[in-house]
Amino acid sequence: MDNIEVLVCDDSALMRNLISRIVDETEGMNVCGTAMNGKFALQKIPFLKPDLILLDIEMPEMTGVQFLEERKKRGMDIPVVILSSIATKGAAVTMQCLELGASDFITKPSGSISSNIASVSSAIIEKIASYGGKYARKNGKNIPLTETFVKQAKLREAEAAAKKEGIIDKIAPAALSQETFSPVLFTSKRKEPEVIVPLREPGRIEVVAIGISTGGPNALREVFAHLDPKFSRPILVVQHMPAGFTKEFAASLDKICPLSVKEAEDRDEIHPGQIYIAPGNFHIVVEKSTLCNVIRLSSADLRNGHRPSADWLFESVAKIYQNRALGVIMTGMGRDGAVQLAEMRKQGAWTLGQDEESSVVYGMPRVAYELGAVQKQVSLENMANEMNTLVREHGK
Q: Per the database record, which ranges form the Response regulatory domain (predicted)?
C-alpha cells in the first residue's frame, strides 16, 4: 500500500503542527512537508511531489490566492484544498479560490484552534482521501477507497469520545486496527442493479433536480458552463456545502453559466431557465401552487447526515412532478439522494448518474445505480450534453 502524500501550507506553526498530526496519525496518509507561505510551497513541490496540498488563504509574502494564480500559470494539476479561518467570513475569497482551480475547502473552527481543530479532522481526512487519493491512483499508486479512510476517522472519533466519557474499556481494544485497512476496501464491491418497473412512461420534462456532494463545486462549474443557453427548464440543486457559502457559490456559477443562478429563498417561484442552489443548512422542497410551483426551505433534522439533503429534494419532486422530471445524481460520499432518486425513477422520471471514472467519490451515484435508480451513467464531460439533449427532446 502507498501513502497519500500531503503538503501543508499555513503561516501558523501551531496549525501546521496540528494538521500534520491529524494526517500522520491516519494510516495511508503522510505529511511529506510543510510551508509557511505559497512561495515556499512552490519551491518544495518539485522535490516533495505531493498528491494534495492543504492551503491557507491569508499568508505573508504569497497568499493562497496568489499561489493558485501561479499554480494555474505553471499548469500544475496537484489538487488543492483550502483550509482557512477566514473562509466563513470571506466566502467570496473562498469562491475565488475555487474559480482559480482549488478542488474544495474546509473551514477552520472558531474559538481555540488547538482545542477545536479535532472537530474538523474527519472533514480533513475525507477531502484528502477524495481528491488526493484520486490523484495518487491516477499516477499509479495503490491507494484505498475514500470510504476506507472515512471509516478509520469515524472509529478514531468514537474511540476519543469513549475515552472522554470514561467508557473506553467497553470498546474492543483491537477495534481500530481490525477495522481499518482491510484489503477488500481497495476495490469497491459491485452489485448488479435492482430492477425498477416505473409506474408510468417518462413524460415531458418540467424540472431538473440535481444532488451532489464531494467533488461538486468543480463538477457543477463544468456542467453549468456547457448548458445550452436555450435550456428551457428550471434546475434545483442540492450541493452539500456549509451555511454562509452557497450565496457566493451561486454567484460564482452565475458568472460562467448561460442561465441565471441564484441561492434559493423560501417561496421562490420556480421559473424556466433558472437555477436554484439550496442554501447551506436548509433543505429545499417543491410545493405545489396554483399559478406556479414554489420552493420551500426547511430546517428539519439532518437526513443521511446532511442538511440540505438530496433525498428531501428528490422526494418532493417525485411527489409533485412524478414522470415529468429529470433527476441527476453526481459525485459524492455516502448515499444521500440514492433512495429518493429510485422513487423518482419508480414514478417514471428520467434519471442520470455520474460514472465512476469521472467521480471524485463514486458513493452517491454508485448506491443509486445499484438501487436501479439510474437509467444511464454519464461521464462528467458529457453530463451537460446529455441534459441538454434530454430537455431539448423531451421538454416540449
A: 5-123
> What residue type is 32 in one-letter code?
C
Our answer to whether residue 336 is catalytic in this structure is yes
| Residue range 116-129, pLDDT digits in tens | 676 688 899 999 99
Is the pLDDT at 143 greater than 90, yes or no?
yes
Domain range for 20: 4-182
* Joined grid coordinates for residue 64: 493562497
Say how far apart CA 135 and CA 325 lie, in whole Å: 35
Query: What does R_g of the chain's alpha carbons equal in angstroms?
Result: 21
User: In 3D, which of 200, 264, 267, 207 has the Cα closest to residue 238?
Assistant: 264
pLDDT the model gives residue 189: 64
**In the annotation, is 301 catalytic?**
no
Inter-residue long-range contacts of 25-28, CB under 8 Å, 24+ positions, other chains counted: 25/156, 26/125, 26/149, 26/152, 26/153, 27/152, 27/180, 27/181, 28/1, 28/3, 28/4, 28/143, 28/144, 28/148, 28/149, 28/152, 28/181
Averaged pLDDT, 287-307: 94
2 catalytic residue (yes or no): no
Task: Count structural domains, the chain.
Answer: 2
Catalytic residue among 10, 56, 85, 240: 240
Whether 192 is covered by a domain: the verdict is no
Can you give the CATH number for the domain in which 255 is found?
Answer: 3.40.50.180
